[in-house]
Design brief:
301 residues; mainly alpha; 0% strand; 74% helix; 17 helices; single chain; globular
């Protein structure tokens, strides 16, 4: 037994126990259920202002002037829809909400469509100066919006677009396209060349190839771009404040005007602000899966 044990000790390699590092142990503990609960609590904490705005919009101006929105839990009778009835009778707010939709939807659709076509062209079509044109598009990403406000305002004033909805749409499309082309070109370039060559062998032209192969595969990235562009345009105030007038202003400018003119008009401001806030949230959560897929696209091959 002694001889055999000595032979085993000599022939078998020594097993060394590798202890995880301090960082690995900390990460392992942080991935437990306690941290998940903590993150959920933090997320709910960030939703408190939105929830408070909702409850404020469901209270009368007298109740809001008397105490905070949390008193609704002890006095549920304070909840009422009168503020929303007042909002619907306010032509400035309802008209500005319609203007916001009229500005946001075309600006988003145009950026997605033009950016998709240009991204495909830069990724898979050969034309003179393609790389240099793409570098020019990337260079436009660093141009701040504030620099272009005055020159474009003078240009729109000369051609009769200043103060119109069309001018705001064109401004958002122009500044949204560089990012759209950059994002979609990089995504489309990851599509396997074999798929495109097989479609071309079947007789598909460029437009059919783009519609039947590239668009379905690029759905997550296109959805992410659409969400980004929608949120940027919907929440914009600077461009709308410069390029719109009283008839074309979106809801962000209309609410700011209400605050400046009628500081105690809380029965209109609270529901208007909540509607302006909740619509982007609904759009985001409706396309959340596509958004996550687009963000993670290309991370794992």
């Amino acid at each position: 037994m002694t001889v055999q044990s000595e032979r085993v000790n000599k022939t078998s390699p020594a097993r060394t126990v590798v202890r995880p590092s301090l960082g690995a142990r900390i990460v392992g503990r942080l991935s437990g259920g306690v941290v998940r609960v903590f993150l959920i609590v933090v997320g709910l904490f960030w939703l408190v202002p939105t929830f408070g705005l909702l409850l404020s919009s469901l209270r009368s101006p007298q109740d809001m002037a008397a105490d905070g929105w949390w008193h609704v839990f002890t006095e549920p009778s304070q909840l009422t829809l009168r503020s929303y009835e007042t909002l619907l009778k306010n032509d400035d707010i309802t008209g500005s909400l319609l203007n916001t939709i009229t500005i946001t939807v075309p600006a988003t659709v145009l950026v997605v469509v033009i950016g998709s076509l240009a991204g495909y062209a830069f990724a898979w079509m050969e034309f003179p100066g393609r790389d240099w044109w793409f570098l020019a598009v990337v260079g436009l990403l660093v141009v701040p919006v504030q620099v272009a406000l005055i020159p474009i305002a003078e240009l729109f004033g000369g051609i009769g677009l200043f103060g119109s909805i069309l001018g705001v749409i064109l401004f958002h499309v122009g500044f949204g396209l560089p990012f759209a082309v950059f994002l979609l070109r990089n995504f489309f370039a990851e599509i396997p060349r074999e798929l495109l060559e097989a479609a071309r062998l079947d007789g598909a032209g460029e437009l059919r190839l783009f519609a039947t192969v590239v668009m379905p595969l690029g759905g997550p990235a296109i959805a992410s771009l659409g969400i980004f562009q929608f949120l940027w345009v919907w929440n914009d105030m600077l461009v709308a404040l410069v390029f719109t007038d009283a008839d074309s202003q979106p809801i962000t400018v209309a609410l700011q005007t209400q605050v400046r003119q009628f500081g105690n008009n809380i029965d209109v401001l609270a529901p208007g602000a909540f509607i302006s806030l909740v619509i982007p949230l609904v759009v985001f959560f409706a396309f959340q899966r596509q958004f996550v897929s687009g963000v993670m696209a290309g991370a794992v091959k």
